[in-house]
Specification:
The complex is a heterodimer of chains A (432) and B (555). Chain A is of the alpha/beta class and 432 residues long. Chain A is built from 15 helices and 8 strands. Chain A is 38% helix and 9% strand. Helix content of chain B is 64%, strand content 1%. Classes of the chains: A alpha/beta (432), B mainly alpha (555). At the A-B interface, helix 1, strand 2, helix 4, helix 5 and helix 7 of A face helix 9, strand 1, helix 14, helix 18 and helix 22 of B.
């Protein structure tokens, strides 16, 4: 990867305009807040900015069951009483309420992740970013933990078309159970999750003994942590584990879920990471120089989520950005300090001991060695010429040209963002 | 045999830990069933007619057997009455079905499978699997200990009554006895119902990449020099200043402002600066921030809507601000929230709220309801899942849980006053239909009752006016969301009276001072700017009079 990687950033201007319901901690608006900061720091000038494709039912059914997706498409707050059976069947209602535009929301964030995967597959970019994605709890047949459609699984399935080995890294404070479960039996995806575990913490999975099964045994890595993790200790386990994982597994692409609820002062989290500490994880992963799909995830203190992901966008672009938050329409949210790196640590005591962390590292290492001893089917499976095939595909002139031609096409004035299917929202602006 | 096996096993899920253990083998059977969805049919075909006949005989026998025997046969020792009933009904309903032949049998089998929510069995299966490999005995027993300890507390009833997923069709009694979900440790499920299908080998994109043309490049930084871009943006900015009127004409400072649309235009023009500027000039209306175009009427309608429906932007859209999409409302809300308008709005509603708490039942409680939404959200009705943390991410939300008092610290007197409600609640929440709707039910008076109960130190179940809830449910023909519930409850004077009497009575029981205390401290938390009068209220009994006079002044 060159020093300045080509970064494709996807953002759908409508993705922030959904509301899970009064009092619900998940606020899609944080994505709009993040985008607003990215914009006003001028970071968008350093990367390709896309208004993403919206995922279709077909795309979602690559992982999910048709019944479930069909339900998501048809249900709305107005007709919800007709779906009582499905609601409990698919675990929709409480953590995962039915809200207005639920399907559109899923379609937007899933489409953006899928598009990132396609771009990586086509070598259109080195790093793809979708802060609206990363909803790692959704299961094949059910919603879970504020997640309806598992865009990560769908994105990885797309990457698997081209990549023999996909590494998934999850730094959300919650265990990445949906993704781990989806790829529990395969060696083509290694899932590595760092999370708070124990004492009724959601979702209750992520024990260090969850290693995967059948072909996938040893291809699920879990690093269960106690509350109060700080920057230094987090890095002391994150860095060596990721290094070893990459050394042993030799992935050809990495998917990084950057859930920001592992920050200090999160409404639902109990770690004590600073924004810089969180961003350091992104830096570490990026420095391996592999194609990288960066996704959002949890994060329930809006202003810090926006700060964190903006900072990480800067990290990805190798751009230093100032601590002073530039003027923007949401500036008030960043008071009273108006800084990018306020002190967000809490008094939460770090419950992790050095010994515990050392033990974890040792265990991960031992398990990874198992993986080397038993050569995976996949590693033999990949014919050498397939790798060179990748290379021939690297610069596909047709594709890029098509796209550029398309974008250069002159449109009528005022028709920003509109395509054939989308003319409802923006028209209003023109009329007024 | 598989049929009854599954049926029994699932209904036995609700029994105590001991019986759970007895039923481990049946869990295995379930694994089998779930894993081999495809092979199930084959299996059926393979099993000859005689085995079917045997099975039918068995089933028939079972059908005639007295319940006690049947229970004994399946290892039911001390199941509750409800449970017995349930198992009876399930076996009864099974046998006639199965005696009709294989076709109906398989369909009934399917029915069972589909009726049982997958998650219900998932833990069982996974636990079973893992106990074979990784998990040791200790953990198992730990879990059981945990189970027992939890089930002894009162929340258990609530929990169980909720956690039945997807058993709409089965008896509600069945759900009450359902327990295993209380364990916090969960495991990853294995089976075709859980894993993604990983494509074999590597493939190659066809000539037409799947999604290539459906996205839209808005800006590509590689095509142009940074300085040129900056110059272009400056010129665009000047242009805006020259042509625009009103707010937009105010210079925004020396720094170059980013303009996404201008950059997109530049890209559309093939990075030809002059062309982009020319086209920009031609645009009759400069694209402006859509938010600045909200009319005063829309704003005030929005605020009224917010007052009436809370943060249900769909209802506000439907009833108040038809000119804006729900998305626009949400966007507007977040911008509006940090403006002076919001402060005025919030102050007003807060005043109303205070008036209400001092004279309960006098003021329109709509206002207060909204205020509850403004301040930390009210504990959303004892939520099933909030009691079951493993199932709820929300559980960890301090904004919700801080209003959830600890069970242990209840003040005896008041707690006992509320006992009858308690039991009522259980029955109600056990109804499957209530479960789904419940989280969204938020009546105006609820926050109030919550507060009062909190003062009384009541635990969760105590403060739910359950009778009200059921009434709401049955009354409203569309139990879709919060506001519709609100509607129905206001429409029904019966409900209203109930709430009022409840809150008044509880207010009488609680020393009035505490009620003021509580509310004011809450206010203080939410808005320091508004804290002055409120603080004085919270100082003690004497202050009550003060706040009253303050009230008079404000009126």
């Amino acid at each position: 990867m060159p020093i300045n990687p080509v970064v494709a950033y996807s953002y759908d201007p409508d993705v922030g305009n959904f509301h899970y319901g009064a009092g619900h901690p998940m606020k899609p608006q944080r994505i709009a807040l993040t985008h607003c900061l990215v914009m006003h720091y001028g970071l968008h000038k350093k990367m390709q900015v896309y208004r993403p494709y919206r995922a279709s039912v077909h795309d979602m059914c690559r992982f999910h069951s048709e019944d479930y997706i069909d339900f998501l498409m048809r249900v709305s707050p107005q007709n919800v009483q007709n779906f009582t059976k499905q609601l409990s069947m698919f675990n929709v209602g409480d953590d995962c309420p039915v809200f207005d535009g639920i399907y559109d929301f899923c379609s937007m964030y899933t489409g953006a992740t899928l598009e990132g995967s396609v771009k990586l597959n086509n070598n259109d970019c080195d790093i793809a970013v979708n802060w609206s994605g990363g909803l790692h709890h959704a299961k094949k047949f059910e919603a879970s933990g504020f997640c309806y459609v598992n865009d990560i699984v769908i994105g990885i399935l797309e990457l698997l078309k081209y990549h023999p080995r996909v590494l998934y890294i999850d730094i959300d404070i919650h265990h990445g159970d949906g993704v781990q479960e989806a790829f529990y039996l395969t060696d083509r995806v290694m899932t590595v999750s760092f999370h708070k575990y124990g004492n009724y913490f959601f979702p209750g999975t992520g024990d260090m003994y969850e290693l995967g099964a059948e072909c996938g045994r040893y291809y699920s890595v879990n690093v269960p942590l106690r509350e109060g993790m700080d920057d230094q200790m987090y890095m002391s386990v994150f860095k060596p584990v990721i290094q070893q994982v990459i050394e042993f597994y030799q992935p050809t692409v990495i998917v990084l879920q950057c859930g920001a609820d592992s920050l200090g002062s999160d409404r639902l989290g109990c770690f004590n990471l600073s924004i810089k500490g969180h961003g350091e994880c992104v830096k570490v992963v990026k420095e391996f120089g592999l194609p990288l799909l960066v996704l959002g995830g949890g994060g329930y203190t809006k202003r810090n989520v926006a700060r964190c992901w903006t900072y990480e966008t800067g990290v990805i672009l190798n751009e230093e950005i100032s601590n002073e938050i530039p003027y923007n329409e949401y500036l008030e949210y960043f008071g009273p300090d108006f800084n990018l790196h306020p002190d967000i640590s809490t008094k939460q005591e770090n419950q992790n001991t050095k010994q515990y962390i050392e033990g974890l590292k040792q265990m991960v290492h031992d398990n990874l060695k198992q993986l080397a001893c038993s050569p995976s089917v996949e590693m033999q499976d990949v014919p050498p010429d397939l790798l060179s095939l990748d290379n021939t595909e690297e610069q596909n002139p047709d594709i890029t040209n098509n796209q550029y031609d398309n974008d250069k096409r002159i449109e009528a004035n005022n028709e920003f963002y509109d395509d054939d299917k989308d003319n409802d929202k923006d028209e209003g602006i023109i009329e007024v | 045999m598989a049929t009854t096996g599954t049926g029994e096993a699932t209904s036995s899920n609700g029994s105590s830990p001991e019986t759970d253990q007895d039923f481990d083998p049946s869990a295995d059977m379930m694994v089998h069933d779930y894993d081999d969805e495809r092979t199930m049919e084959e299996e059926e075909n393979m099993s000859g007619a005689e085995s079917v006949a045997d099975e039918l005989n068995d089933l028939e026998k079972e059908g005639d057997m007295p319940i006690e025997q049947l229970l004994a046969m399946y290892g039911y020792g001390g199941g509750s009455a409800g449970e017995k009933e349930d198992s009876q009904s399930s076996s009864n309903s099974m046998s006639p079905d199965s005696s009709q032949g294989q076709d109906t049998r398989s369909s009934s089998e399917e029915e069972i499978l589909s009726n049982q929510d997958l998650t219900l069995d998932k833990d069982e299966i996974a636990r079973d699997l893992l106990s074979n490999s990784d998990e040791n005995e200790d953990k198992e027993t730990d879990v059981h200990d945990l189970l027992n300890s939890v089930s002894s507390s009162q929340t258990a009833r609530l929990l169980r009554s909720h956690s039945q997923p997807g058993s709409e069709d089965s008896d509600s009694e069945d759900d009450i006895d359902y327990k295993p979900e209380e364990e916090w440790k969960k495991t990853i499920s294995v089976g075709s119902a859980y894993q993604a299908v990983v494509p074999e080998g590597l493939s190659k994109y066809g000539d037409a990449p799947a999604y290539e043309n459906e996205d839209r490049l808005l800006w590509d930084p590689t095509k142009m020099d940074d300085n040129d871009v900056e110059k272009y943006l400056q010129e665009i900015h000047l242009q805006i200043l020259q042509t625009s009127v009103g707010v937009n004409a105010i210079p925004t400072g020396a720094h170059v402002r980013d303009d996404e649309q201008a950059l997109y235009l530049l890209l559309q023009c093939g990075h030809n600066k002059e062309e982009a500027l020319r086209r920009r000039k031609m645009q009759a209306i400069p694209p402006t921030d859509p938010m600045s175009l909200w009319s005063e009427e829309e704003c005030s309608n929005f605020e009224t809507g917010l007052r009436f429906y809370g943060k249900d932007f769909y209802l506000i859209h439907q009833n108040k601000v038809k000119t804006r999409s729900v998305g626009e409302l949400v966007q507007f809300y977040y911008l509006w929230k940090k403006t002076e308008r919001h402060d005025i709005f919030a102050n007003k509603t807060r005043l109303e709220k205070r008036r209400y708490t001092l004279h309960p039942g006098v003021t329109d409680y709509m206002e207060r309801f909204l205020d509850d939404q403004e301040t930390p959200p009210p504990p959303p009705v004892p939520r099933d899942r909030s009691a079951s943390p493993v199932h709820s991410l929300l559980f960890g939300d301090p904004k919700r849980s801080h209003l959830k008092p600890h069970t242990e610290h209840g003040i005896g007197d008041h707690a006992s006053n509320f006992q009858p409600i308690d039991t009522e609640l259980d029955i109600n929440t056990a109804l499957p239909t209530v479960q789904c709707v419940e989280p969204k039910v938020r009546d105006p008076a609820e926050g109030d009752t919550n507060n009062i109960c909190l003062q009384n130190g009541l635990h969760e179940e105590g403060y739910v006016p359950p009778a009200k809830k059921v009434k709401t449910d049955t009354l409203s023909d569309s139990i879709s969301d919060l506001p519709s519930d609100l509607h129905s409850s206001t429409a029904s004077t019966e409900t209203q009276n109930h709430i009022d009497s409840l809150s008044i009575s509880s207010a009488e029981k609680a020393p009035p001072v505490t009620s003021v205390d509580k509310v004011s401290s809450e206010k203080y938390k939410s808005s320091p700017s508004n804290s002055q009068p409120v603080l004085s209220v919270s100082l003690g009994k004497v202050e009550l009079g003060h706040s009253r006079s303050a009230e008079a002044v404000s009126q």
